[in-house]
Amino acid sequence: MGGERLGLVGCGQLGGAIGRALLRSGAFAPAPLLICNRSGPAAGFSDVADIAWTTDPQEVADRCTVVLLALPPAAGRALRIRAPDRLVVSVMAGVTAAQLGGISGSARVVRGMSNPAAEIGMAYSPWFAAPGVTAADRATVRALFAACGSTDEVPDEGQIDVFTAITGPVPGFVAYFAQCVQDYAQGQGVEADVARRAVAQLFHAAGRMLAATDRPAADFVQEMIDYAGTTAAGLNAMKASPLAEAVATGLEAARRRCLTIGQPQG
Q1: Annotated binding site
Q2: Which Pfam families match (predicted)?
Q3: Is 25 exposed, middle or buried (0-12, 13-18, 19+ CB in 10 A)?
Q4: Cα 127 to chain center, whole Å?
Q5: Residues 48 and 109 in one domain
Q6: Residue numbering of the annotated binding site for NADP(+)
Q7: In angstroms, rounded to a whole number, what is the distance separating the alpha carbons of residues 63 and 29?
């Protein structure tokens, strides 16, 4: 983005993944990315030249036009920077737009969510803009999250809590389902390495197929049931089981945790 300089506060798993995605895309070049990390330069960036490092978050606010906050929620809520004329973007779970205004002093705050798949350009990153965010700010946020994968602006901040339950945990949920499939294969005598490779490829292919179309997943499920083959037998058994309720229960637990994560426990 011409004329914009991005600063990143927090370089853990998610912040680091987004930082590397931005460097790979060159979205904010040629100005070097300024990263604030309390322990100094972080692993995974040792061979990258276009980075400046600081341990002071206020330096990021002073030197950058866009400030991306990627701290753990408790650390984020405790943060205070003076950034009244900056675009402040957060990927901190559960930290509201109102709280972001208090943290930064800015009216131009965006609350988003992403996941570590950003590093390979495969994240989904929805975001909500506070009333003070301008059209130019929106273009900047789209460029930022597009570097991480696909993105959408949502009209209701409450949807970010829903997407926090989806965007972050679902890769873990998929991994758990893959574990169950691999365990079944191994239980039938398939060697562990063969089962792992097969399951990884099958899940990768399924994700690519879903991502390549605008059709809802339910369409594919129904097509397979209508075909009345082996897949239909398995799907009908799953649909008759409590599986859908268990998935919804897991997602709701993740959403509720988003509302309290990082808050003092009383």
Answers
A1: 70-73
A2: F420_oxidored, P5CR_dimer
A3: middle
A4: 10
A5: yes
A6: 70-73
A7: 15
For residues 145 and 235, state if they share a domain: no
The whole domain housing 129 covers 6-155
Mean pLDDT of 113-127: 92
The CATH number that applies at residue 210 is: 1.10.3730.10
pLDDT in tens, 202-252: 999 998 888 889 999 999 899 989 988 999 999 999 999 999 999 899 889
Strands 66-69 and 109-112: unpaired
Identify the CA nearest to 76 among candidates 132, 158, 10: 10
- Lookup result for tokens 């900056």: 86
CA distances 125 to 90, 131, 146, 168, 263, Å, are: 11, 20, 8, 10, 23
Query: pLDDT for 19-36, tens place per residue?
Result: 999 999 998 888 889 999
Helix axes 217-227, 230-240, angle to 10 degrees: 120
Q: Does residue 164 belong to any structural domain of this protein?
A: no
Q: How many domains does the chain have?
A: 2
Predicted pLDDT of residue 265: 57
